[in-house]
Amino acid sequence: MSTPWLPSILRNPLVALIGESCTETLIDNFDIFEPKCLRHALSKGLGLGIVIGGCIVKLPQLFKILNSKSVAGISLSSYVLELLANAITLAYNYRKGYSFTTYGEALFIGAQNLIIALLMLLLTGRATLGLVAGASMLMLTYALFDASLVGGTMISTLYGLTIPLVISSRIPQIYTIHKNKYTGQLSAFAVFNYFFGTAARLFTTLVEVDDTLVLVGAVLAVIANGVLAAQMVYYWNAAAPKEKYRLASKKNE
Hints:
This protein is mainly alpha-helical. It has helices at residues 8-18, 20-28, 35-54, 59-68, 76-96, 105-123, 127-145, 152-180, 188-208, 212-234, 241-252. It is globular. The protein folds into two domains: 8-33, no CATH class; 59-242. It is a multi-pass membrane protein. InterPro entries: MannP-dilichol_defect-1, PQ-loop_rpt. This is Mannose-P-dolichol utilization defect 1 protein homolog. The chain crosses the membrane at residues 72-94, 106-127, 147-167, 188-207, 213-236.
């Protein structure tokens, strides 16, 4: 066993993240290409990055809505479906005892999705409905964490349902963009971060989580977010529907 050379203030966080054994292998012994620990460290590092990214991924979308006072081109149903998936994912993984770095972004993304969904209702004159929906969502989330209210079989079933829910949460937004040929107030930062984040999450799932349901969900999330990212690129410079109509009218004059 090699003598640790890193000061405790730097070494202890590494031990907390990747474990004592892999810290000794990769850091103390400087065997940085040891396959098992390298995969583990990459997974933990990516997982931590995804969780941190989850804290800010929806903020550009939120600020864009606040600045424009508009929710044009944004699908409310997409946010509601994604919010349900966030709550179920968080509860399922927590109750299974998986590492927070493999699912923690669901907490922060869910909180941001809730705020954006409530803001969308407020800006479209449905503030009362927003208050009722917000309170209902918090009560549902609490129930998902309570095994006496939602049993183990039920939470597994619900998590299985998030697999089509992941796709369903993207379909309304994909359809809205396809129909309008325009991305509206949708944030490119959020869309691309979602795509790359889900791709990284697929890797961490393969390395750390031995759960077919989680793996299938990760694969479908990459596909759905990939379609949305492709639309963002394709319609990058597209004009708003009204503006396109106005430009077409001018050409016909």
